[in-house]
Amino acid sequence: MKILKLLSLLLFINSLLLIPQWLSLSNFKTTWIALEAFFIVGLFSALPLNIWSKTLSRISSTSLTVAFILIFADTITRESLARPLNLYLDTYLLYSVYELLVGTLGSFIAVLTVLCVLIGIVLTIWFLSNLLLPVKYENLSLPNQVLGIVLIIFSCIGFTNKIIPELKSKTSWPAIQLVIDQAKRYKSTIEEQERFEIEIASSPLGYAKLPGLLQQLEGRDVLIAFIESYGEVALYDQRYTPIILPRLRDLEKRMLNSDLHIATGRFIAPTQGGQSWFSHGSLFSGLWIDNQLRYDLLLSSGRETLIDDFRSAGYRTVALLPANTRPWPEGKRLGYDEILARRDIDYRGPALNWVTMPDQFTWSFLENNIRNPLDRLDNRPLFVELSLISSHAPWTPILPMLNDWDSIGNGTVFLPWENAGERPEVLWRDLHRIREHFALSLEYAINAMTGYAERYIDDKTLLIVLGDHQPAPLITGEDASKSVPMHVISGEIKLLQPFLDWGFTNGAFPDPDQPTLKMNTFRDWFIRAFSESSFNLENK
User: Is pLDDT above 80 for 136?
Assistant: First the structure.
């Protein structure tokens, strides 16, 4: 075999295994040598296995391609969710990725992208298989066999990292390490299942039958709104504070002018960059939900949640979920009386890339179609969960706020912005502008919430607004905390006092020195704070 051909093959396999890692912002080109490449090329150069060459080449090419796909998936998971891939739990994310492609690029481009990926996988396997075969057929010469043995020995030396310690920082076994890591995660996941089942069994199921449940609210409506990707990075990172801090100061001023009170604290979310349902599950269940296994076990456990608590206290419970385009049977399990997803919301304006409808419309729909006394199904007070989505990636277009809320109606007023802004595939070529658009979309989300509060919140309503999670590491940088702000707004000051006693501060800014609690502490605390003084959780 010609040396040039061998070196080309070596370079191709080496790049195939390492390029996914090089794409990582934190690991860019820290490793230069994939030792599997040396081992495989050496094996095909040294071993005279003519009869099995074709089979061996196909197995090797398929294994290398699968390794590339999984290493790439691991890199994407780390960059978007700030955690490694877990094959046992994360296969369901494939459809979520496809939905994101559809929402961002459209159905045709999304399907075309998937087809191109599949064709690329097949071509890579075919190309590698044929590239390896000539190595096999030409490896009968002694120089090739010697060179093959040298490559195998080099890969084994690199594996030990003992004979040449300097290799340690520049070499790795990415495919083998992937297998080892996934095996460890599978084992830890099974152990996690056992721990969580014990945790569920040892924790209280709920407070439904206890007298005085949530009586301190005195029948006021309670709205809990999650703002997408609203993390503390927006409050402290100099790349975003010039846009966000003035908006929060404006929030304070407008609440004061509207005779409303506002207090702010912080919570640690169980996720980052996505999988918002983990945060929702943690806040409402009182259990720490930081992976899909825990979430599934929660749903199957029969454990009651804050939603059940409100319903037991005489509230009508509603979920307003404009991003949900598919059936959501989990909602009934979580205890909602009514679930309003995209197909249940009369929105006739344009979709805005992934965002199905702007936040200002969602807030308007809440007031005019859920809270309006003329539209209420009964006289029960309301508990509503809102999932707001205007600050969801790809953060384009950025809409202006409409001053005339009465003109919003069914959303046709937003038609002029149907094709506004840059296409995501254009915007996402520039990291600086991606971050700028993140801040601008978050500013819009906060402004929409502010506009709703100053118009519709009074002393008969408690509005709780928090971030669902920090944005992806692309926005926060590596090793960012998972803390998110929580704002509490009402026209009745006594509704805010329990939050202030808990460590919240007056105004729209949290105390940076306040101990940050996990989201799963919220449910039990809220029940204690707003139930009758005779309410004793220890007697459950």
Answer: no
- The token duo for 110 is 């999304």
Q: Does residue 459 register a pLDDT over 70? A: yes
Q: Which residue has the tokens 């979580």?
A: 334
Q: Say if residue 444 is exposed, middle or buried (CB neighbours under 10 Å; 0-12, 13-18, 19+).
A: buried
How far apart CA 12 and CA 15 sit, in angstroms, is: 5
Strand intervals (E) in 154-258:
171-172, 221-227
CA-based max dimension of the chain: 90
Distances (CA, A) of 204 to 279, 300, 338, 397, 531: 20, 16, 25, 45, 17
**Rounded Cα gap, residues 444 and 399, in angstroms:** 7
Rounded Cα–Cα distance for residues 539 and 368 (Å): 41
Sole residue written with tokens 């096999």:
136
508, 493, 498: which is closest to 459 by C-alpha? 493
pLDDT band for position 540 (cuts 50, 70, 90): very low
Q: How far apart are CA 494 and CA 452, in angstroms?
A: 21
What are 111's two structure tokens? 């399907």
* Paired tokens of 262: 């506002």
Q: What is the dihedral of CA 332, 463, 366, 400, to 10 degrees?
A: -130
- Percentage of the chain beyond pLDDT 70 is 81
Res 137 pLDDT > 50: no
> What 8-state DSSP symbol labels residue 129?
H
Domain ranges across the chain: 3-187, 217-535
pLDDT, tens digit, 9 for 90 and up, residues 485-504? 999 999 999 999 999 999 99
What is this structure's pTM?
A: 0.75
* Short-list 208, 203, 191, CA closest to 335: 208
Q: Provide the 8-state DSSP code for 342.
A: G
- Give the Cα separation of 488 and 224 in Å (integer): 9
Distance set, CA 9 to CA 56, 74, 129, 208 (Å): 16, 25, 11, 66
- CATH superfamily of this structure's domain 217-535: Alkaline Phosphatase, subunit A (3.40.720.10)
Which residues partner with 172 through β-bridges? 34
How far is 28 from 20, CA to CA, in rounded Å? Answer: 9
Residues 424, 105 contacting (CB under 8 angstroms) = yes
- And the tokens for 103? 């929402």
